[in-house]
Amino acid sequence: MSSDAPIHLILVDGSGFIFRAFHALPPMSAPDGTPVNAVFGFTNMLARLLRDHVGTHLAVIFDAGRLTFRNEIYDQYKAHRPEPPEELRPQFALVRDATAAFGVPGIEQAGWEADDLIAAYARRVTEAGGTCTIVSSDKDLMQLIRPGVDMMDPIRQKPIGPREVEAKFGVTPDKVIDVQALIGDSVDNVPGVPGIGPKTASALIAEYGSLDDILAAAPAMKASKRRDNLIEYADKARLSRTLVTLREDAPCPMPLDELICREPDEEKLGEWLAVMGFRSLLHRMGLKGSAAAIGVAPSVTPPAPGAAPDVAPVAPDQVPYGPYATVTTAEALEAWVAEARRAGVCAVDTETDGLDPLHAGLVGLSLAVGPGRACYIPLRHEAEPVAEPQLLPLEGEAEPGPQADPVGPQLDIGLVLAVMGPLLADPAVLKIFQNAKFDLLVLTRAGAPQPAPIDDTMLISYAQFAGRHGQGMDELSRLYLGHTPISYDEVTGTGRNRIPFARVDVRRATEYAAEDADVTLRLWLTLRPLLRIHRALALYEELERPLVPVLADMERAGIAVDVAELRRMSADFADRMAGMEAEIHGLAGRTFNVGSPKQLGEILFDEMGLPGGKRMKSGAWGTDSSVLQDLSDKGHDLPGRILAWRQLAKLKSTYADALVGQADPRSGRVHTSFQMAITSTGRLSSNEPNLQNIPIRTEEGGRIRRAFVAAPGHVLLSADYSQIELRLLAHVADIAPLREAFALGQDIHARTASEVFGIPIEGMDPLTRRRAKAINFGIIYGISAFGLGRQLGISPGEARSYIDAYFARYPGIRDYMDRMRAEAKAQGYVTTPFGRRCWVPGIDDRNAARRAYAERQAINAPLQGGAADIIKRAMVRLPAALADAGLDGSLLLQVHDELLFEVQARDAGALSALVKQVMESAASLSVPLVVETGTGSNWADAH
User: Do 450 and 425 contact (CB within 8 A), yes or no?
Assistant: First the structure.
């Protein structure tokens, strides 16, 4: 043992992890047919531990047997524990073999539990001046946490310290023993005091200080059943304290010197991994083995869209999908919750009577605790009304109504939330969702506590494969599990025959809903390990997942709209459209339905004989915006008028009219829904209403923004990143003149014009600056000479000369563009400065137009995606910053590079300064980030 550095001893709770891995992973078999799912989980954990969390010393601690000194003290201790499952028994020895293969000491001692040995080693190392990390999530070990001793959850790779202990037990680690003595432990048959649970126990500790103080004070307490039990079961409580107290004086079978971390024997380890068939680990660790491997390891290469995975990630075919259980009694529900706690991880899914989580009612819940092990809890199913014979009522009799067929027993939602609430809030149990934001909004609105900690399979996939394929559960299941789940249409019908989910037969609902939870859990087992392989773990854990509750709060808050102003706007738009229609009819030479593409095509191409028309498969002329824009660019007036009419019609229907119906009649606020996994660049999108498409620089767009207003006594505060994509371009392409201009705070467009056209900034013609601005922003989106010429009103040849001059002055930008095209072709994706992979479908398409579009995407995605990463970083940090500053400002909207807040008018200045500081420090680039803020009574004035 070296005296030069303090000891950092890592102790792995081997016995505890075996059970957790067994329940978390699906069945797997070695080439000889031996079950190995727990061994596989343990081996992966140990390999990751050696790579990422290496201390100076390491050991794995095991239980030597079921009988210990505690059985001598209390013969009923763990007496009711069932025998291990048949499939788990052969894996105990294999886990010990795995430990030996890695060259890690495996320690056990007859008559003592692994927890006691861990306590003894932790004491020994801290007394020697070192520190100890216990790799386990076992609540019994939390009593050991203190300065120098901490824990780490091996599944979630999260530290467990005093804060997590207090969240679980309601007390600091030094009081955990007293809490456990009061509540007992039904799993280990520790008696405790009847009727006292964790909340009561922690409240008693807070009031009286310790178990002894509580028992001494019991006779003087107010008469109650709790007081009587404390008196009657005082000796049981003291016995329980003895049973749950870990013995720091237990023997340490191996001296600390022998626990020094050593590199494993690669030949021995590779041989063992190969024999077990763990070829993914062989590949990941760069080892060789002579035995044939089996296909049980996670796939490291995602399938192409529409294709099956190369290797079945977790052998889904070995675990049937169902049958699933329907939970209709409190006892059954409590058993499922207990199983979820033992597993330490579960998948949760909600079934509702609508798609809007802020208004939908909870119809049922599903829970999965292992592959193929899932249930459904019906809450509000109802029968289809049955029509009664039309009989006239007798005098004085009530009018007969439809009678409902019984649907069978269901649990009261209050009871279900009371039982499941502690599980949802338990920091020691990971809750997995597919599209967690929806379920969190539904659950909290129904009265459940905020679920935490969580994982989201949709976001886990999105962090790795944005743009490569969709992130819906059914698509992910087909791609990564080789399984097609029951569809919603199959259980509810389609079209006019669709029935609400509440009317679906409970048996059929169980098959559908429980399968969703089962699939979600299997997707987590398959996709979660790939995050580290694809270098997306930090992106997911630091950006995407923490953003879920932030966006949920934004959706709950909503934003107020001025309904009267919207109605006036709608009427004004209608009058303007009528006038435009009259002008259009005059140009066409007759009246027609301006909103009809078919009639418009006949006017343009059949009657007016304009060139360039193309018929679609239906036989009608194509009249989309690209066709009309092309005709307008060629000097034809009517197509341009149609485009203007369509733009106004869209604004009227999408905003002026729709927002009135979307506003909550009680609060006058609209609640947009933020979509987290749609775009290929990481950008958020929104719908109902879509706030991303409000024109920024038009009069109509400004008027629509004026209809979004602050609550009385409040103002809206807009915070907008200035030219963030250009700043990212200067950073990633390393363009010295642009970096200098941003560093000096110069007008970037004037500086570009000066650099490209060789004229001084002072006294620059505004038209010259406008041309440089068009090039600056156009380059980001791969603009062509034709497109730039159309935008500036010049010939394509002149526009080409501008672009050539631009690249001649900034050759690094062309190099960047060439590099992004090459990366996209070689990898299928490009990467943002913060590590997000943006997949680029069509980069090798034979169709030149589609390929050119993909190349433009490849150029822009790192910039647009980088901007999305930066604003998400800020959004994740802002809630805590506001809370620390004591400001009650609310984040309401995110639109592209802008955040919109609502704050009391007196706090606007303080909030503006804080938001600016947080947003500008969200990332460190070679150019400064600049945020412009403004306030006003409405969005337009604040923007």
Answer: yes
